[in-house]
Amino acid sequence: MTRASLDKQPRDVAAMFDATAAKYDLMNDVLTFGLDRRWRRLVRDAVDAKPGERLLDIGAGTGTSSEPFADAGVDVAPADFSLGMLRLGRHRRPDLGFTAADATRLPFADEAFDAVTISFALRNVADPDAALREFRRVTRPGGRLVVCEFSQPTNRAFRTVYNEYLMRSFPPVARAVSSNPESYTYLAESIRAWPDQRAMAQRVADAGWRDVEWRNVTGGIVALHRARRP
Q1: 4 part of a folded domain
Q2: Of 213, 209, 51, 31, nearest to 120 (Cα)?
Q3: Structural domain boundaries enclosing 208
Q4: For residue 171, is pLDDT > 70?
């Protein structure tokens, strides 16, 4: 089985998601008890993209995060560096213009987008700070950034229960359902190692974004960070 480690070598991470692609969306539903669908709706609302605007959805996988925007008339560009995910996405939604892209070296012109969003993928990038700077480069002045990522529950008791769930429940469920169960051990570890809300907000600001704020979702399991390009 293909599994990445926390040094997040791009080739290893891409191979892991290639091997996971076949049942990735199903696993998201199972492991989050369907909450991932609500989280995607909240991302859509936070981005607040209007018909005709250009939106980059980086780490789009098979395109489930891009579909709500496309269906609302937004000119969305789904991008990912897993070719396995992109192949499935193109099969599911051939009308979407999927692009193979490394988040730290985007194949797009300066100021090409009105908004950039990334959901549950920034923590898989080898250099998240470089990615945040790259997102800024391709966003027009005044444009928006929305980062949806797993974070730290705000209640200490709930945080303990949640961390136990990550490390004890992910692997057995993945073995029963996933096409690459070993990858979910990495995913659980990467969630635990990710910075909390305040630290993440500081990284966004350090990358040159302004008006940085966040909203806790599901008790802080997920945080929505929003910012604007000056």
Answers
A1: no
A2: 31
A3: 10-228
A4: no
What are the angstrom distances between the C-alpha of 202 and each of 47, 133, 210? 20, 13, 10
The answer as to whether 55 is a domain residue is: yes
User: What pLDDT sits at residue 69?
Assistant: 96
Using alpha carbons, select from 96, 71, 72 the residue that is nearest to residue 85. Answer: 96
Q: Are 77 and 54 in contact (CB under 8 A)?
A: yes
**d(C-alpha 75, C-alpha 161), whole Å:** 40
CATH of the domain at 115: 3.40.50.150
Q: Which tokens belong to 94?
A: 């051939």
Residue with tokens 């940085």: 212
pLDDT tens-place string over residues 38-72: 999 999 999 999 999 999 999 999 999 999 999 99
Residues 6 or more apart whose CB falls under 8 angstroms from that of 106 comprise: 56, 58, 79, 134, 135, 137, 138
Residue 15, domain member (yes or no): yes
pLDDT of residue 79: 98
Count of structural domains within the chain: 1
pLDDT score of 4 more than 60: no
Ramachandran angles phi, psi of 40, nearest 5°? -65, -40
Mean pLDDT of the residues in the chain: 89
